[in-house]
Amino acid sequence: MENRRMHPGRIILALYELIKNSAIVFIFLFVLRRGSDAGWVVAGRWIFIAAISISILNIILSWWRTTYRLEADSVQIDSGVFSRKHRNVPFRRVQNVNRQVPAVLRLFGLTSLTLETGADGEDASVKFPAVTKAEAARIEEALDGYRRERMEAARAVPGTESVEGEASEIQEPLPEKARTVHFTAQLKDVLKASFLSFSFIALIPVLATVYSNIDDFIDIESRAEGFLSFLAGSGFVMSITIALFALAAIAFGIIRTYLKYGRYIISSDDERIYIRRGVLTEQSLSVRKKNVQAIQITETPIKRLLGLAEAKLVTVGSFEDNLEDISSLYPFLPKQRAVELVGELLPDVRLLDGMERLPKAALTVRMLRFPWIAVIGTIALYFWRPEFPYVPDWPFLAAALFSFTYLLRYFDYRNTRYAIRGPLVQFRKGGLWRETFLTRREKVIEASASQSWLQKRFGVATIGTTNRAKPVHVEELKDLPGAAAEQFDRWYTERNPELIPAGKEAEPWKTLQSES
């Protein structure tokens, strides 16, 4: 296929970023200091103009010199203005696909497409910053076509395995285009999210940043002191000001939350899970169900009081920094709805009821463990000895720290549960914050069981699982009965025969490894 360039809208997007990053310097040099003839101001203007001119030229040349080409099994990318770089990214390494539509691209009907791989560093993703929606669809279709060809080749030759152990991924059904919508955020969901996420508090750092930037150019500290003195002199004016600030903070929080979580839609077909959110900047994620390694359900103290929970997909591959939380199935769902949604999206994964509690010996072991954090905190309090109004002396603070530590251990013991049933294993743990982890046996790439000296004396053990993710996801559950650790050993070693290489026996690993 022929080489192609990104849409010229890539230039506009880059210019927008340039203007946004240099706006403060421009305002200072050409607006606030417009009448100044000082040498450093004049020199700063010329340096600014030169830097902007070079940046614009680099943006245009970078767009012109960057090309890509779709092959049958990979995407080829050539970039670099003076020093050329060639990248060859095989389609078999692509794990997730996500789209972002910034407000600037939305005006031109464009989108940004990113193919996430399991690599590190610069090779972690392949990004198309500005392409038409038709071109994005063409790229995704090339990826799907490659997978279809591999599946047909595997069916034509029974027993054929792909390189690098991808046989299980080949044998999936053809993707269905019809999607089922499972969740759409309503106005009540956005309002609930705005208050539970405390987004209204974000107005404070925003105002502090604005104040700091303005204070660098204009001395407003004296004016602010005069305004505060005026407020302090009138209780009525102070009350009105506080009320107006509270209303502004609430409005800011609702608008900010709506822009992020508005139009939140979760849908799926036979092969993929689709998550889309955002109003001005639209973000979307496409995850293959085969790549979902586990489910995490998190309940913060406030969410537990309100019966809410956040279900998150643990998937193969990585995400960009601003997309880390998009794998969440809406963070403010009622717990029962979150559980139902997991079952709808992943029919082979069901949260288990009737989980087992830890034995009383586990509580003894947890209470006997050395409280490192409390001891270090006490030492810090002894040397620091803070003296604050209405705050007790350091011995009382140290006693409170120890009491809080052991109280958390007790709550963690009460909340910890486990279930090993069929192909599923499920952990629940946490003191004030509660987390439930669920995965299937074939998704676990490594399992472990161990006993410390203390655990051995009380007949309990620690088990853990490792799942493919970016970074690798490790889950651990402490102080289970020794019999449960043996059950976990059998559960993992009795995996499906297709997971064991032909001609090899499954090698049972030691049930308990003694730790020094």
From TrEMBL:
Domain YdbS-like PH: 63-142, 266-340, 413-492
Keyword Transmembrane annotated: yes
Cross-referenced InterPro entries: UCP026631 (IPR014529), YdbS-like_PH (IPR005182)
Region of interest (Disordered), ranges: 497-516
Domain of life: Bacteria
Entry annotated with the keyword tRNA processing: no
Transmembrane regions: 12-32, 38-61, 195-214, 226-255, 367-384, 390-411
Keywords assigned by UniProt, alphabetized: Membrane, Transmembrane, Transmembrane helix
PANTHER family: UPF0699 TRANSMEMBRANE PROTEIN YDBS, UPF0699 TRANSMEMBRANE PROTEIN YDBT
Protein name, UniProt field: Bacterial membrane flanked domain protein
Taxonomic path: Bacteria, Bacillati, Bacillota, Bacilli, Bacillales
